Amino acid sequence: SVSLDNLECKMQNAELNIAVIRLPKISNFTDFDSLAGEVDVNLFYATNADDLNAADLIILPGSKNTSEDLIWLKENNFFAQILKKPVIGICGGFQMLGVKIGDYNGVESEIDKVLAGGKI
To answer: Does pTM surpass 0.85?
Structure first.
């Protein structure tokens, strides 16, 4: 995700505004490059919940640590905005849309509890 630090996302007039939530441990972000090249699409990376106001569609991208990124979403008040818009989940982002996430053996993180996903 270091290459996203230099990415400049300009809001432009477009038929469809798509926000990709810039998770701290984002992965699979190059999957959206083809969308960014469409003339009728404005693709941008949301770093805070207010960024989602301009979105017609939200993408929850992949994550290198689904549990920690889900907690980050909760702590940064993304849920209220996510509930207002159509959402697509990719990889770990799709897992976050489930009812619960369990890392019972601590494989992904030291978080050993089941996280309530779904109803984001």
So the answer is: no
